[in-house]
Amino acid sequence: MSEKLKIKGGMTLKGEVSISGAKNAVLKLMAAAILAKGESKIYNVPELTDVQIMLNVLEELGVKTVYDKVNKTVSINAENIADITAKYELVSKMRASFIVLGALVSRCKEAIVALPGGCAIGERRVDFHIRGLEALGAKIKIENGYVHAKANKLKGADIYLDIPSVGATENLMLAAILADGATRIQNAAQEPEIVDLANFLNAMGADVSGAGTSEIIINGVKQEDLHPIEYATIPDRIEAGTYMAGIIATRGKGIIKNVMPSHLTFYNSKLIKMGAKIKLLEPTVIEVSCKQRLSAVNIVTQPYPGFPTDLQSLAMAMLTTADGVSIITESLYENRFMQVPELRRMGADIHQERNHALVRGVKKLTGANLKASDLRAGASLIIAALMAEGESIIESIHHIDRGYENFEEKFRNLGAQIIRFNDNDNISETLTQKGSYNEASI
User: Fold this and answer.
1) Taking the chain, what is the end-to-end CA distance rounded to the nearest angstrom?
2) Looking at the predicted structure, is the pLDDT value of residue 5 above 90?
């Protein structure tokens, strides 16, 4: 029985929220941990569906893992790797698991990893991963839906990425760690998660420089130079941006803890132009507030440090009731406006033409029955439902569970009236137990 969300809109969000570890960082750290023999520990690991899938992928390889949900710690013992195959049944559930390809080729000299297939937000091909591995000396065969990579010894090379692909940058970093000589990745992705991966690898004994710039240099080391470590991942900038959006969209005021403001510079600048106020209270604590109707802004998604594509849908939700006309251009993925039909059902005035969306601010949104199509589109529907007049039901929330830890509890702590249920639940009883709605309001 699929779970759903029931949200009563019109509540002003106020309070505090603490941000969990970054999903897009920790998944790659988990894969990187198999490069070193022995047990590594990763702290600040969010309890997410995607994290469990990655644990399953590693366990299928013979790696021993333990997830301590109380302390948010993952232990990964990669003393022995018994299998080099990452099966389709797992890789197809989460594209990020494809990153084990680079780690396995580096450590085991061979890897068989399922092609990740399509994605709801658009085509994300693995050509850059394959060409980069070939440049390092790997022999690649693609058959029966699997990538089979083999190399007796990888050798450093100069690799230029046609686009700054995050996944390709990460996979090639992992592959180059144990290669002979130096590898230079040009036009590399610059996201904070890339920097976090480089810091993790260097702590392990690798030699990586330039992460966070367009050119990354990896000087190959020997297997015996690598050792297991303990490491805490960075906060999730996209989760932080989501709660900021909820507070601003409902004209509230809140404190966001465990956040790296420098990771959200471009996003914050757009929020300020919309009319929000953002105040730095401590190095990892900000105060966010908004008292008036937002103003329209134009947005173009770009690779970091530009406006994050993962926050585009949330910005669109906020702008549906802004004063004026906004133009949003999605330059990274061809199918990342999947929230548009659902927002229209709530009364939004959005005209979409290919990768451009023209958003005319309306007076208000109204609650509706909605369906999440993917992770970030689902998050945008939560923001829209919080803004709307009346109640909304959001289906297919398993997408949202992929990237947000305890999101309904965190929103409730900010004053939102939001509850998870399924069709077999007595909703009135469930809401009363959760302390969100009272029975009379149903």
Assistant:
1) 22
2) yes
Show the tokens assigned to 224. 């015996």
Unique residue bearing structure tokens 């465990």? 258
**Smallest Cα–Cα separation from 371: which of 361, 363, 381?**
381
User: What is the per-residue burial (b if ≥16 Cβ within 10 Å, else e) of 30-67?
Assistant: bbbbbbbbebbbbebbbebbbbebbbbbbebbebebeb
Q: In whole angstroms, give the CA distance from residue 333 to residue 315.
A: 16
Q: What CA–CA distance (Å, rounded) separates 57 from 116?
A: 13
d(CA 220, CA 208): 9
342-377 pLDDT tens trace: 999 999 999 999 999 999 999 999 999 999 999 999
Distance between CA atoms of 430 and 398, rounded to whole angstroms?
19
Q: For the chain, give percent helix, strand, coil, nearest 5.
A: 35, 25, 35
Residue 72 has pLDDT above 80, yes or no: yes
* Three-state secondary structure string covering 31-55: HHHHHCCCEEEEECCCCCHHHHHHH
CB 365 within 8 A of CB 342: no
d(CA 381, CA 357): 17
Average pLDDT value over all residues in the chain: 93
DSSP symbols for 260-274: -GGGGHHHHHHHHHH
SS3 404: coil
Query: In whole angstroms, what is the distance from residue 216 CA to residue 206 CA?
Result: 13
State the residue for tokens 């750290």: 29
- Active-site positions? 119
Q: Residue 268 corresponds to which amino acid?
A: N
Predicted confidence (pLDDT) per residue in 193-208, tens digit: 999 999 999 999 999 9
Report the amino acid identity of residue 289.
Answer: S
Taking residue 389's Cβ as centre, other Cβ atoms within 10 Å add up to 14
The amino acid sitting at 320 is T
Q: Are 374 and 404 in contact (CB under 8 A)?
A: no
Residue in this structure with the two tokens 């690799």, named with its chain if needed: 159
pLDDT at 433 over 90: no
Q: Is the dihedral of CA 420, 423, 425, 428 positive or negative?
A: positive
